[in-house]
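User: Run a structure prediction on this.
Assistant: Running it now.
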Amino acid sequence: MKSLFLIGVALCVVSVQAFAAGKPPNIILIITDDQGYGDVSAHGNPILQTPQLDRLHAASVRFTDFQVSPTCAPTRAALLTGRHEFKNGITHTILERERLAPGAVTLAEVLRSAGYATGIFGKWHLGDEPDYRPERRGFDEVFIHGGGGIGQTYPGSCGDAPGNTYFDPAIYHNGAFVKTKGYCTDVFFREALRWIDQQADAGKPFYAHVATNAPHTPLQVRPEDEARYADKVADPATAKFFGMIANIDDNLGRLLDHLKARDLERDTLVIFITDNGGTVGTRVWNAGMRGQKGTPWRGGVRAVSFWSWPGRFAPGDVAASTAHLDVFPTLATLAGARLDARTRGQIEGRSLVPLLDNPGAPWPDRTLVTHVGRWPRGTSPEAWKYKNCAIRDARWRMVSIEGGTSPAWQLFDLQTDPGEQTNVAARHAPVVERLAAAYEAWWTDTRPLLVNEDAPLASMNPLKELYWKQFGGGPSAADLEKMDYERFRKPR
């Protein structure tokens, strides 16, 4: 495990040197919420049409075996730090276990140190308390909703402004709430484009992190977008879900057109990533994969990953095993950032620059670990060590679903069985032994870093408190019920 990490660092260092003489790109990273790998028409979806994503797909280096985490906050933590979410203390999406460990260095901090203006628009989901908010984690411009989604409320500190919906949401903007007009995805892209124009006018390189809340539930959608699919699918929920993606697609097209109109296209790297496996859309198309969001199966962690920089990278497919862990070192490399020893020691991912330059470049094998986490509050992680987890290398993927303190490993050969249908563990005992040993080493390294497990729950959502301080009011009975942990944990 350590040797693979060192290989990744070496690749990163070489790439930094290679880019030292070039002009760093502007960077726009778009990450959508609960859109699956199959929710793109270029990936074979028979119903959903995404012409703008297809346009980006045609212009991009496409990582076809790109792994993220099974749920929202974990992926965001890994992407912004270059290390596994558990090592950032994040083992859940709520209950104070979604907070990014204070000691973690973020991508935004590194890019800002390299001279970039940094802005986030949309979903943060890495802590709503003041010390955890993005303005304390390297972002100059902050325009976000609270909690894990617009309108969500949970016990503890994770919760959005009261009464929010996807239409006209109150948004936390640089320390205070602003009341917006429009559909949430439109609002986030509109604000991002406004800020991008400001940076371009000032001649400053920028990193825009655009994280849509859509198409996450609740399925709140513009009627005209839902109507696009009302007569194409039998399930009304799927029509809403596809309509939300269609709206994202429209906004992506406007962004791409805007970059071209501003003569920024050839100087800007546009990245489009999805945050976990599919949800509603898997009822229609899941690209032949088993599982979906919240599972350790490949369908729970395989993500869209398009990288377009017309001035630098030629379009093409990359089959190598890559991951969200690789985004941090890649962007740090392209930005020409200088990483101190602490930051280099944090990074577990590899720079993708060699593959962006040459899709067939050498790519040493490595192991990647998936764990769903989400064990009940107050229970020992050890009791869930082998439940809903997986470990893989380029060829093999090993999954344990029913394990707890003892593993129940199933092994799948991705070369012949990418849909993970046939367990071949009995025929490949040495592979099972090797991957099991790598998992044990990972757990031993990771267990001391689960820093949020015993964190006391906040008595009130801090962003709700801020909203009431600005606009008056206070918690309703419904708010208090949603924040009551005793009621929350009772079966419904």
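The two ends are 43 Å apart (CA to CA).
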